[in-house]
Amino acid sequence: MNTIKLSEFENTSVAKIDINGTTVAVFKVDEDYYAIQNMCSHSEADLADGEVYDCKVECPLHGAEFDLKTGEALTLPATKPVTVFTTEVDGDSLVIKENLDA
Ligand code: FES
Protein backbone atom coordinates (compact mmCIF):
# COMPACT_ATOMS: atom_id res chain seq x y z
CA MET A 1 0.00 0.00 0.00
CA ASN A 2 1.19 3.52 -0.75
CA THR A 3 1.35 5.21 2.63
CA ILE A 4 3.27 7.99 4.34
CA LYS A 5 3.41 8.26 8.11
CA LEU A 6 1.68 11.43 9.24
CA SER A 7 4.67 12.04 11.51
CA GLU A 8 6.69 12.78 8.36
CA PHE A 9 4.76 16.04 8.13
CA GLU A 10 5.82 17.22 11.59
CA ASN A 11 8.61 19.45 10.31
CA THR A 12 7.69 19.85 6.68
CA SER A 13 4.58 20.37 4.60
CA VAL A 14 5.65 18.27 1.63
CA ALA A 15 6.70 14.67 1.06
CA LYS A 16 7.33 12.53 -2.00
CA ILE A 17 6.28 8.97 -2.71
CA ASP A 18 6.69 6.71 -5.70
CA ILE A 19 3.45 5.19 -6.99
CA ASN A 20 3.74 2.73 -9.85
CA GLY A 21 6.78 4.53 -11.24
CA THR A 22 5.37 8.03 -10.86
CA THR A 23 6.84 10.34 -8.25
CA VAL A 24 4.00 11.98 -6.37
CA ALA A 25 4.33 15.18 -4.34
CA VAL A 26 2.13 15.23 -1.25
CA PHE A 27 1.38 18.62 0.29
CA LYS A 28 -0.09 19.35 3.69
CA VAL A 29 -2.18 22.52 3.62
CA ASP A 30 -3.65 23.38 7.02
CA GLU A 31 -5.03 19.97 8.05
CA ASP A 32 -5.66 18.67 4.53
CA TYR A 33 -3.43 16.63 2.25
CA TYR A 34 -3.17 16.93 -1.53
CA ALA A 35 -1.22 14.67 -3.84
CA ILE A 36 -0.22 15.52 -7.42
CA GLN A 37 2.30 14.26 -9.92
CA ASN A 38 5.66 15.73 -8.88
CA MET A 39 6.85 16.49 -12.39
CA CYS A 40 5.60 19.76 -13.84
CA SER A 41 3.56 19.33 -17.02
CA HIS A 42 5.58 22.07 -18.75
CA SER A 43 9.11 20.76 -18.40
CA GLU A 44 11.32 18.91 -15.95
CA ALA A 45 10.85 20.52 -12.55
CA ASP A 46 9.92 19.12 -9.15
CA LEU A 47 6.67 20.66 -8.01
CA ALA A 48 7.52 19.45 -4.49
CA ASP A 49 10.12 22.24 -4.48
CA GLY A 50 7.52 24.87 -5.38
CA GLU A 51 5.94 27.46 -3.17
CA VAL A 52 2.44 26.67 -1.92
CA TYR A 53 -0.25 29.27 -1.27
CA ASP A 54 -4.05 29.37 -1.56
CA CYS A 55 -4.14 25.64 -2.31
CA LYS A 56 -1.91 26.18 -5.35
CA VAL A 57 1.70 25.28 -6.03
CA GLU A 58 3.99 27.44 -8.09
CA CYS A 59 6.49 25.60 -10.26
CA PRO A 60 10.02 26.52 -9.11
CA LEU A 61 11.36 26.65 -12.67
CA HIS A 62 9.09 28.95 -14.72
CA GLY A 63 6.39 29.85 -12.22
CA ALA A 64 3.30 28.12 -13.62
CA GLU A 65 0.67 27.58 -10.95
CA PHE A 66 -1.30 24.37 -10.43
CA ASP A 67 -4.45 23.82 -8.42
CA LEU A 68 -3.63 21.23 -5.76
CA LYS A 69 -7.21 19.93 -5.72
CA THR A 70 -7.75 19.48 -9.45
CA GLY A 71 -4.25 19.50 -10.94
CA GLU A 72 -5.39 22.18 -13.38
CA ALA A 73 -2.69 24.43 -14.83
CA LEU A 74 -3.83 27.90 -13.75
CA THR A 75 -1.13 30.04 -15.33
CA LEU A 76 1.29 29.89 -18.22
CA PRO A 77 3.67 28.59 -19.32
CA ALA A 78 2.02 25.29 -18.31
CA THR A 79 -1.11 24.46 -20.27
CA LYS A 80 -1.66 20.83 -19.36
CA PRO A 81 -2.88 19.59 -15.97
CA VAL A 82 -0.88 17.36 -13.66
CA THR A 83 -2.30 14.08 -12.41
CA VAL A 84 -4.11 14.23 -9.09
CA PHE A 85 -4.02 11.37 -6.58
CA THR A 86 -6.50 10.60 -3.82
CA THR A 87 -5.41 10.99 -0.19
CA GLU A 88 -7.05 9.42 2.83
CA VAL A 89 -5.96 9.51 6.47
CA ASP A 90 -5.94 6.04 8.02
CA GLY A 91 -4.88 6.09 11.67
CA ASP A 92 -1.36 7.48 11.81
CA SER A 93 -0.81 7.11 8.07
CA LEU A 94 -1.81 8.84 4.88
CA VAL A 95 -2.89 6.52 2.07
CA ILE A 96 -2.25 7.79 -1.47
CA LYS A 97 -4.10 6.17 -4.33
CA GLU A 98 -4.31 6.57 -8.05
CA ASN A 99 -7.50 8.37 -8.93
CA LEU A 100 -9.14 5.79 -11.14
CA ASP A 101 -12.15 8.02 -11.85
CA ALA A 102 -10.00 10.61 -13.60
S1 FES B 1 8.90 23.53 -15.77
FE1 FES B 1 7.19 24.13 -14.59
S2 FES B 1 6.53 25.95 -15.53
FE2 FES B 1 8.20 25.32 -16.74
From TrEMBL:
Does the record's keyword annotation contain Nucleotidyltransferase?
no
Keyword set, alphabetical order:
2Fe-2S, Iron, Iron-sulfur, Metal-binding
Entry superkingdom? Bacteria
Q: Does the keyword Metal-binding apply?
A: yes
Start and end residues of each Rieske domain: 1-96
Pfam families reported for this sequence: Rieske
Q: Which GO terms describe its molecular function?
A: 2 iron, 2 sulfur cluster binding; metal ion binding
Q: What is this protein called?
A: Putative ferredoxin subunit
What is the originating organism of this protein? uncultured bacterium EIL26B11
